[in-house]
Amino acid sequence: MSKDRLIFTxxxxxxxxxxxxxxxxxxxxxxxxxVSITKTPIPSTPTLKIEAATLDSAQICSPLSDFKLPELGAxxxxxxxxxxxxxxxxxxxHGVDFAYxxxxxxxxxxxxxxxxxxxxxxxxxxxxNRPPYGNMILIETxxxxxxxxxxxxxxxxxxxxxxxxxxxxxxxxxxxxxxxxDTAHPSLYTLYAHMQSPAEYPVGEVIGCGQVIGxxxxxxxxxxxHLHLEMRYGAGGASFASLAHYSADATAGEMAAYxxxxxxxxxxxxxPLKVLGLSD
Length: 280
Fold this sequence. Notes:
Oligomer: single chain
CATH superfamily of the domain at 77-157 and 180-275: Glucose Permease (Domain IIA)
Helix content: 10-25%
Distance between the termini: 136 Å
Radius of gyration: 42 Å
Order of helices and strands: HHEEEEEEEHEEEEHEH
Number of helices: 5
CATH class of the domain at 77-157 and 180-275: Mainly Beta
Shape: globular
Strand content: 15-25%
CATH architecture of the domain at 77-157 and 180-275: Distorted Sandwich
Mean pLDDT: 80
């Protein structure tokens, strides 16, 4: 055998030996990928905490649209100052007046400013530019419907006790207009006077707190635009067709209603600033 052939034969033997016994290749599987997921809890909708209703937002409303309750003290032009004379001369100031020349922020005059109901209730009287209240609306709110912090005010006031009208004020001898009034369930009555125009609500109409009931004017016995706010409490269910006095054309019925409201004792005066939370 030649030398070249011998070399070829050896190479072939080695090659065939490698093919019959292949090397074992063990594939190591990749390590599993572990994904750590931290679940962040979805925040639940927080429970809305409703605080006790504030006077301004829920139970008592500002009588003027351009002022919040705490701001009213700055525009009191004539405070509550009823007469202390025992013979009920209809003297003093039976309510509180709010007035200003120009609004401190907007610069607007007070004339025409919207008047809002301080308390919910129903209309008990409306007058159409009759003296002395001018354009006026009277709204009744049962005492049992008042906020608790307002109810306590009436524990320090004597119960209204109707009596004969003995006064220097000229009052017709018609007695007290109390037909159908409910003395067992008294109410608080809020009077808004000197409005720019007559109220457009009839007696018996239900009014909501903060509802616009008129606009500031200077009707009746008034010399400048202002809101006269007057409050009294007495028998529930009272109503008047009209109230008027101090005028030759005031009817007997109007004067009887005025006297009953003002000096008969059937309706007990209360300082409106106390109800509004602006006075102790």
